[in-house]
Fold these 2 entries.
Entry 1:
Amino acid sequence: MTIYGKLLAWVVLLAGLPNVTLSNPVKNLKPVGEARLTVYFWKVYDATLHTANGQYSQGQTPLTLTINYLRDIDSTDLIKQTREEWQSLKVSEEKIDVWLPKLTQIFPDIEKGDTLALHIDDQQVSHFYFNQNALGEIEDPLFGEQFVRIWLDENCSYPKTCKKLRGESD
């Protein structure tokens, strides 16, 4: 078999695997807003929110939140920060204890330039993507809304970022 034949065989094999299938979680959605999170002088990420009509209202689906990271972040740090943000937003400890182990299985270590996206579909299933590759999903209909509250809730840690993502002016 030639090198081209072997390469083609690998492409065919990889195309059949669900976690390497390229996906577009913003297909048919319109941008609502975008924001850069900077903490002190560190650029952390650029985020963009998409919805079906290009406007945000709490609980609407479909919705995609895309985060392009501007620095390396370990998955354990992502999990720790998610817990802290949920606790700050008064998400029940029972739900946190159910959801964090699932996120631990899904979240990869992030390198500068990586993109992590959450797409909440019309059935309120939460689909995660890493650099446009499907990562995993959480079927609990409450999860997605509680997860995006970290960025979109009026009481979130970064209200200026929240307003920009929601398409609101300062």
Note: Residues 45 and 69 are 4 Å apart (CA to CA).
Entry 2:
Amino acid sequence: MAGWIIALVVVGVIVLLGIIFFSMYNGLVGLRNQVKNAWAQIDVQLKRRYDLIPNLVETVKGYAKHEREVFENVTKARNLAQAGASSDTATRGQLEGNLGSALSRLLVVAEAYPDLKANKNFLALQEELTSTENRISFSRQFYNDTVLRYNNKTQMFPSVLIAGMTGFKAETFFEITVPEEKLAPKVSFN
């Protein structure tokens, strides 16, 4: 009789440990998929940005013909960012940071042309780009929040044991790698 009780307790403990293991494993899988989804949402917004940039550049070009270097830099940064779409998070962050800096310079050039600032097409494109940049910022924040939850789960006890046994690795945060982007922008109305 005592043997049956011990056997049932052992089986019960094994079943309980199995449930805990699979529950933690499934939680890790779910968080890893949320990280991938959050990154995909950044991709959606970046695609939108890539599609808007040529239209914005062409609109500004019509007014600022002598600002060729600025246009070339924006186009080059856009192409490099698109080409690096399959890069790791750190490289991708740097490429996107470079593109953001180039776009800022383009918008500064646009400020020098009052007729351009009043152009309806330019204003609509500028509003779309601003909206897209806000969406990218939100998507990056959501991605980092998701990475934080995932990394916490993979590094905290007891799920760290399951993460280590099943190959779950910490993800990289999306960080600003271009030092100029960390500085406050200078606004001048001269």
Note: Residues 2-61 form the longest helix (60 residues).
